[in-house]
Amino acid sequence: MKLANVIKDNDRSRALAESKWIVFLTSIMLLILVIWGALSSIQLHYNYQKSLMDSVTKSVLAEYQEHLTQLRLTIDQFQFRHASALAQLVLSGNQTSKDEYMELLTQLREEVDDVRLFAIVDSSGKGVLSQLTGEFLPDCREEIDDTLLRGSQENLFLHRSPNGFHYDLLQPLLVDEQAGLFLFVAFDPAVLERILTQHQLPYQQLFLMRSDQSGKIEFGTEISLEKSHDQSIYMSGEEVHQFDFLKPIPGTRWQLAIRLAPEYNARVYLESILQALLLWGVTTGFVYLFYQAQRRRLYKQRIMEKELSFKTSHDELTGTMNRATFEGQLAGFIAQHSGQLMMEGVVLLIDIDQFQLVNNSFGYSAGDSCLNLLSFALRRQLPAQAKISRLSSDEFAVMLPELHHELAHGFAEKVRQQIEQFDFTHIAPDLSLSASVGAFVLDGQQLGSEEVFNALAQAVRLAKSKGGNRVQLYHSDDVALSQHAQEMNVVRELRAALNDNRLQLYRQRLRALSDASQASRYEVLVRLIDHHGSLLTPDKFIPAAEKYGLISQVDHWVIEATFAAIAKDIGDNSSHYSINLSGVTLGDKGIISFVHTMLEKYQVAPQRIGFEITETYAITHLSAAIAFIEQMTAIGCEFSLDDFGSGLSSFSYLQQLPVHNLKIDGVFIRNICDNRLNQVFVETMHRLAKEMGKKTVAEFVETESAQHYLSSIGVDYAQGYHHHKPEFWFEYSADVTGS
């Protein structure tokens, strides 16, 4: 019995000793781990702060550059507004009175913030108004000399004066007679200091330093302008090397410096080590509890990893796959069946029609509820092997790997009907949804998921162009899809051309058939240079511009470019130009104001400008057409009714339209010598126009015989290739943003 007890005691001792060793070894291992964790945490803190400092540096640099650029722009605008007053100051020179100077300085301070004074510097660097502004300080003189040498201000820096710091901006004096003069404006630098302070984050120190003087500090978040004014402050080379970022500010002698506060590293080290030691001490004393806590922690960690994995691969709102995961699944399916003859496999793209209206009308919370319910309803209907993803705010994609190709359209239609019939009234009484659904069959010939999504996007856009709430099955040889894709290419090309000024003006002369002494008359035409350098005629891009809402931008571009071309041609003061306007532009309430602005900007006489509107639009929008014509006619512009004769109701409405010219549709002109009905029609239209006091223009005159006939019946003008082919006129190089 005693022997058994001794054996048990030995076992307990051995177990206790083993436990002690386990505690010791575990404690050592834990100590190593917590120290490593502390060091990792310190590194993470530093990397995080470094990324913040990089972001702050970029933001401050951007704001400094934007501030200085805006000041220069404002100064130039001030010069334009007060050009005559500035010119008078230059002319008066040292005879300028203090009242004249102060009046202009007051205006400058009202229009430009933080201005101290201004001066005018001549080409030798002397102040034209020195009797009022005093002689330039040495720092100012250095910057003036540098600017005169370079031709522009490239080395901006702070200048110290008895009253504090200031900086100067030198802009060329925009007075034509005074080439070589500069407008010198001195500014209070407080806003520069304020920008640093506004961007300062906790534990960060920002400084504005001189790039041409090692270690010299202008000011910073730790050194105010007042403090740096009392004495120049320098940092040692070692201190300068401690900065995490030193970035020069273009056009200045400054560089932006940023570093962590010295106490930050000490605080992070201390907190991290203390936390590590505390964790080590607690866990060492309760090793068995620690084991249990570890098991619980690992269990929770596994749950969190699963949740995190789910969140990174699924949409947070609906719980469906996110786009990246879905694309990966689709790409894997395509790769697995690449080159195989497939009869199964379909992908759907579901785009909720006008979903933004739901958010605008019922709120984003209602919109989220709709999407959540909709995704639940779709998943309930889909087969088990189907994959569903929410691609964007109002788009879902579905992959059906086992759906037969012949069933693709029917299944997509079933999905569309379900969305249309789904009851959302418990969210909002009048709420209902519809969807445009694109379907694509996977036949094993696809190159990748991007090709599939591009095809689905084309199918959905075509469905929406047909009114939405319908299914469109993609076929590579589908004429409508091909046409829609071509239109989208044209739209992208046109947008790029508008942004890059790749539009050109052409013109075609109208020949006067009765009075050859009249001033030249032209119709303005537009061409587009695509990214390959090819010339596109209007029939290639105007229909797409009208369909996709770009025609107004084109019209605005043509109007301004035409006026710019007329203003540029100073040798021609009489030619008349006629500009085509679309119905969309004609109905724009701002077009009249825009035309007035452009006429004034380019100093073009309204009597040299005409506008052409189509007969169809004029008749269908009679009130808007009459209002526009009357207001433009009142200032001297001329109007022509284009394609006259193509509308069935034109005669009954013609007398209400105060146009000056009727342009007879070319369909009646091309074969007029061989078609008696066209002759009768043109003669009738000409007599009608003559009785109403309007002139007639025949379009598409391509032969001498046609021109001779038209002249014989009294038509006023002929336009066409027989007389003049469209010629390049003008390429507008400025930034046209009239729309």
UniProtKB/TrEMBL annotation:
The question of whether rRNA processing is a record keyword is answered with no
Which positions, given as ranges, span the membrane? 21-39
Q: What is this protein called?
A: EAL domain-containing protein
What is the source species?
Answer: Corallincola holothuriorum
- The residues covered by the EAL domain are 487-739
Q: Which SUPFAM superfamilies match?
A: EAL domain-like, Nucleotide cyclase
InterPro entries in alphabetical order: Cyclic-di-GMP_PDE-like, EAL_dom, EAL_sf, GGDEF_dom, Nucleotide_cyclase, Rev_trsase/Diguanyl_cyclase
Q: Which Gene3D superfamilies match?
A: 3.30.70.270, EAL domain
